[in-house]
């Protein structure tokens, strides 16, 4: 089958079959029309080419003892993997079949979300506004340095005034909250206590 796939001529097939019957090794090259291998014409000034070493006529078979002495017949040792908790798997399957949802995963996700929310403090809007105003001032300074200040000045100043207005509203709310807290703690206001 291999000979047919390699598209050998009948002469080449016969030649290879004769070599196999005699127990000889197969040739590295099989010439299409004659059993004689043509001698290559050596060019006068070419460097010597490495010739492949010729194989011996008889195949060298290793004895069974040599093969068995190597590690070809050694089996790999069994290494057990970490086992799953079968009870948890059963509970999980029951939840999936009963409710159509994996309840354990949802609980774990909720716990992870809650811890993430607790770890990240909510950014202060007042501080954000201060940073945004500073960014706009830096942008305007860069544009003026590039000669584009007039183009962006009106837009940037409008945005800055909007941010400052928002900061004033936040400041008023905070001061009102502080007044309410102070009046709750000290209902009499600034009056001094008679026991002092």
UniProtKB/TrEMBL annotation:
Region Disordered, residue ranges: 25-62
InterPro entries: UPF0193
A matching Pfam family: UPF0193
PANTHER family in the record: UPF0193 PROTEIN EVG1
Name this polypeptide is given: EVG1 protein
């Amino acid at each position: 089958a291999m000979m047919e796939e390699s598209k050998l001529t009948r002469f080449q097939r016969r030649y290879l079959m004769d070599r196999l019957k005699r127990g000889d090794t197969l040739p590295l090259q099989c010439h299409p029309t004659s059993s004689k291998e043509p001698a290559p014409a050596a060019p006068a000034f070419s460097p010597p080419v490495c010739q492949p070493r010729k194989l011996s006529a008889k195949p060298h078979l290793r004895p069974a003892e040599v093969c068995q002495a190597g590690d070809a017949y050694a089996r790999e040792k069994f290494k057990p993997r970490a086992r799953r908790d079968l009870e948890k798997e059963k509970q999980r399957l029951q939840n999936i079949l009963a409710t159509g949802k994996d309840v354990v995963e949802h609980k774990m996700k909720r716990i992870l979300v809650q811890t993430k929310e607790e770890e990240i403090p909510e950014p202060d809007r007042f501080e954000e506004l201060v940073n945004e105003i500073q960014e706009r001032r830096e942008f305007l300074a860069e544009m003026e340095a590039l000669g584009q200040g007039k183009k962006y000045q009106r837009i940037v100043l409008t945005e800055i005034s909007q941010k400052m207005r928002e900061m004033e509203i936040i400041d008023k709310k905070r001061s009102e909250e502080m007044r309410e807290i102070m009046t709750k703690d000290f209902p009499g206001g600034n009056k001094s206590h008679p026991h002092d």
